[in-house]
Amino acid sequence: MSNKSLYLPEDVYAYLVAHGTPPDDILRGLIHATRQFGEDAVMQIAPEQGAFMTILAKLIGARQAIEIGTFTGYSALCTARGLSDDGRLICCDMSEQWTSVGKPFWKQAGIADKIDLRIGPALDTLAALPQARQFDMAFIDADKVNNLHYVEALTHLIRPGGVILIDNTLYSGKVADLSDDSENVGDIRAFNDAVAKDDRFDCVMLPIADGLTMLRVK
């Protein structure tokens, strides 16, 4: 497990993970399986973030959730575990190759029947859903240029009091480096500025892993 929290020394990070709910054998197996993708494996969320998402889903009594950007399925597994027994998680991703890695682990964890994986552009998937505010929770971890579009689409689907989580909003701390004018950094800065002043949400940016913004829909 790699330390995605840049601000914590390795020993402090190891202590942090050890003193939360640790990844079980299934999650550790998925972490190991994801390593086959080399440098791309860094896209997998951190274990402490997964534990947070499971607890949050339980705290808000989530039954229906949406995920945009599934990769190899770690975040989906964590979210699905936090849903009610009759819960459902719609997962949106573009890659059969990546998402196929997670399927055996979903089955092993006993939550495969909660997950509805849809391959294709997420905005098309969201637009095709009934435009009713029936979902309790959403997680966005996809192409950063579309973050605002994803949030806008989700505001018509998430119930009042529901939450939207957006990953990588600190982007290795680069958002605070004004000399960095790269495209992804600019997109994330613009997103962070926009949601911080959007009065449709209560907003907090949490220093979990690479930065996790939480929006509570009013």
Structure in a nutshell:
With 218 residues, the chain is α/β, with parallel strands linked by helices. Helices cover 39% and strands 20% of the residues. The chain has a seven-stranded mixed beta sheet, with helices on both faces.
Notes on the protein architecture:
The protein is of the alpha/beta class and 218 residues long. It has one domain: Rossmann fold. It is 39% helix and 20% strand. The protein has helices at 10-18, 25-34, 47-59, 74-82, 96-109, 122-128, 147-154, 183-196, and strands at residues 64-68, 88-93, 115-119, 135-140, 158-167, 201-206, 212-217. A seven-stranded mixed β-sheet has the order 3-2-1-4-5-7-6, with helices on both faces. Strand 6 and strand 7 form a beta hairpin. It is globular.
Q: How many β-strand stretches?
A: 7
* N→C terminal distance: 36 Å
CATH topology name: Rossmann fold
Strand residue percentage:
15-25%
The helix fraction, in percent, is 25-40%
CATH classification class:
Alpha Beta
**Dominant shape:** globular
Biggest sheet strand line-up: 3-2-1-4-5-7-6
Mean pLDDT: 95
Number of domains in the coordinates? 1
Q: What string gives the helices and strands in order?
A: HHHEHEHEHEHEHEE
Class by alpha and beta content = alpha/beta
- Major sheet description: 7 strands, mixed
Task: Note the main attributes of this structure.
218 residues, alpha/beta, Rossmann fold, 7-stranded mixed sheet, 7 strands, globular
